[in-house]
Amino acid sequence: MDVVEGRTSGNLYTRYGLNPTIRSLEAKLPDLEGGEQALAFCSGMAAEAATFLAHTRAGEHIVCLGDVYGGTFELLGDNLPQLGITITFLRADEVARLDEVLTDRTRIVFFETPSNPTLHLFDIAAIAAHARAAGALTVVDNTFATAASGGRSPPSPAASVPAGLRPPQ
Length: 169
Ligand SMILES: Cc1ncc(COP(=O)(O)O)c(C=O)c1O
Fold this sequence. Notes:
Helices cover 31% and strands 14% of the residues. With 169 residues, the protein is of the alpha/beta class. The radius of gyration is 17 Å and the shape is globular. It starts with 19 loop residues before the first helix and ends in a 7-residue tail after the last strand. 30% of the residues are buried. Bound molecules: pyridoxal-5'-phosphate.
């Protein structure tokens, strides 16, 4: 019970974040990715769903830029709207319209870079600057360019939550 209730450290049920293998991974990832902190999930969609649900509520808004993985498109285009979260999709060639679609209800600007399937590359720092000015987090899925695949996550000050995944600043 001392471990469960946080009075002492120890290893316990994975669901409580007390699995030593996962904690070891989470401790190493920030060094590999140039980040501050990492949370490991059992799948990419679990990471995305947790991030979106942690940072948006009914009546709030997410902007999605460019093409995205099919499961992500379903989550954003179908599942989250059922919870009252609105989504604006902009094509990659419409990024200049970002300021137009940001509102005081926008909580997240999301994109993949490189994107799936077209491998489009976005200017993370530029987009994050617009998102931050509007009070929104920038969430980046960099599945195709993690340290594991020889790439590197976006520089940490630029984006709030690269889906490698770092927590918000
Ligand atoms: C860019 C991208 N994001 C997210 C996912 C979802 O990851 P997972 O299959 O681990 O849920 C995929 C899966 O291929 C992907 O290509």
